[in-house]
Amino acid sequence: MKNREYWRTQLPHPYSPNDQDVQTYLNNKVEGKTLLLGCTHSLLPHSDFQMDFDPWYDGTTVITGDWRDNRTHYENMMGDGVFNLNKELTFSVLEMAQVFSKRLIVRSFNYKLPLMKIADYFPNKNEFPLRPTEHIQFSEYSFYIWDFQND
Known about the structure:
Blueprint: H1 2-8, H2 19-28, E1 34-37, E2 49-52, E3 62-64, E4 74-80, H3 87-100, E5 101-109, E6 134-137, E7 141-147
Parallel strand pairs: 1-2, 1-4, 2-3, 4-5
Antiparallel strand pairs: 5-7, 6-7
């Protein structure tokens, strides 16, 4: 399947997180279980479970399903590009994560890059119904971090 071949590859930075980006995820996690929304290759070793509607690999830690349908609590949820699919999905994932996690860490692209095939939404921090606790902006992408521990 062509889409599966695209996602299983290690795309070059900035399409895929570099070592510094992976460290940003790790520095912002809280202690406990981590759910990776999607199957970003470089983040797999840093997650306990991975959830995607069409995962490119099988394994005991892979959960096939829609991110919005998650009803299991994880201390951390992290994703790469999961907010770039569309606005409705973005807001639904944020709402789900607020209920079922302590920390949400997402890297989101600021605009469409040439190799992007399915990215159609590029949020900015002022659009979210719940403001991020932290926003780290680079030229091509931003990190949005929500801390739900104190809610």
